[in-house]
Amino acid sequence: MRSIRCPQNFYEIMTMEELWVWLKGPVINGALPDQWYNGNPFTPEEKGLVLYAPRLVGGIQLRQVRVRDDTCGQATLPALQFDLPNPKCFGDFSLANQDTQPFGPNGTYTWSNDNHAMEGLFGYGPSYGTGGYVTVLPTAQKNASEALDSMEAARWIDRGTRAVMVMMNFYNIQTDLVTVVRLIVELFPSGHVVKSHKFYS
Hints:
The chain is an alpha+beta fold and 201 residues long. A hairpin with a 4-residue loop joins strand 5 and strand 6. Helix 1 packs antiparallel against helix 3. It is globular, with a radius of gyration of 19 Å.
């Protein structure tokens, strides 16, 4: 079994499993710490502090965009069909290919529009528009972890997912700065995964 770590290299390969490990590990533990480095629990006044200085404002927002399962061309040459049944086919992201139907257990996850624009690959990649499936995690680490466990069990990320954005807002009272953090993971039809990030202070 190979070790799984938070990817450092921009073009490092990441799987869906590693994406969940990253969300449930570094993201939750880093943005929602509940104790000091020596194990002492945070006081009520200290809860929400990140790196013991900035404070998380609001929850962690997760947003994904998806494509429908009929959005790529099928092979027409007999030699390329390999006598396989007609599979579901998830193509590249475009607004025309975007899925907006509820999904998950009993249609748990619903699409919404008029969010902020999501741009891929540092703003040079695809534009994912302003729609998507938005979930805001609870601000308590235990509750946020449970919410992610439920999402993972329901396969919130699957073959139709084309991008996942993690958005967090922080305020540092010591520097009087607000910082918006946007972490984007793009999942392409080829299976290639690209990570990028933006910080606005």
